[in-house]
Amino acid sequence: MTVSITSKGPDAHLDSDIVFLYIASPTALQKYGKDFAEHPVGTGPFVFQSLTRGQQATFTANKDYWGGAPKINKLVLKPMPDVSARLAALRSGEVNWAEAPNPDDIASLKSDGFQVFTNSYDHVWPWIFDLSYKPLSDPKVRRALNLAIDRETMAKELLKDTADPAYQIPAVANQAYDKGNDVYSYKLGEAKRLLAEAGYADGFTMSLSYPTSGSGNMQPGPMNQLIQADLAKIGVKVELKPIEWAAMLTSITTGKIPDQANAINISLTMLQESSWSMYFATNGYINVGHYSNPKVDKLLAQAQAEFHTTKRFQLYSQASKLIGADAPWLVVVNDRNPRVLGPDVHGFVQPKSWFVDLTTVSVGS
What we know:
Blueprint: H1 14-17, H2 26-32, E1 46-52, E2 56-61, E3 74-77, H3 83-92, E4 97-99, H4 106-111, E5 115-117, E6 125-129, H5 139-147, H6 151-158, E7 163-165, H7 188-197, E8 205-211, H8 220-232, E9 237-243, H9 245-252, E10 263-265, H10 275-280, H11 294-304, H12 309-326, E11 329-335, E12 339-341, E13 345-346, E14 362-363
Helix pairs in contact: 5-7, 11-12
InterPro entries: SBP_5, SBP_5_dom
Protein name: ABC-type transport system substrate-binding protein
Pfam families: SBP_bac_5
């Protein structure tokens, strides 16, 4: 009953990273071979029953779950990328639960008796700049773009307070957040001045690859269109290149920005501490923007070897300050993870995480 894990060196954040360590059943792998993905098994509260690709996945309660059997007997997941379709299904009773509602619909959903949940969690919604693209290779240009977007209006008016404005790399929910590191704000005049100093008084053109939907991506179309309009005020013309979520993931996990774009918009989290190095270390696994700062590399290496939690997150805060000054990302908002549940759903607790506990949930009058 003991699992031993050997690391290449001191790894102080193994306990947060291990949440993402998935262990496949050797028995199932041997039995199903290349078809293993069609017959998933695990030790969680629900047992896989069936899958109809593009339509739904069905699970049943694991009566032998170590934490106690769930209160619901069956769980059905339906992919509905169109937000209008999701809410129509919710209102008609086809589903009991809908993720990422259209912010404009929240008031009417509440008045109709639906439950709307939000919570601050460790999430950031950025553009990652390709620093090899000449205008974006200049930190003055990147800082100018960060000063040219109106995060407050986006969060309040477009997103109806389902997100918070982001003023630095880590979210407020992250232990590395230090208000003293808030470096971004809305200063249009300063943005224009920095662009002129960098030699781009008349602006420049760039392109952005962004997902049409997907985990934590909120309302990517309207949000990116609003940023596009904000940047146009300082002469920066942005071509928007929409892409399907799964295709984007395939590109980013191979270290590439899709469609030869100059930036990528993707929803991210630092819940897994090694994300700091994946995003910002010179040879980071998902450092698709080619950001490199030796001082940041040193701080991240120190953090990995620092087992005192407070001291470790102080190192992340120091790294955040340096990264904020370099502005390799356009930091926009932090999602509050809105979801809507039917009036007959009970026992749900909105977490400060992407991980949702369904064992406490029941459905009934």
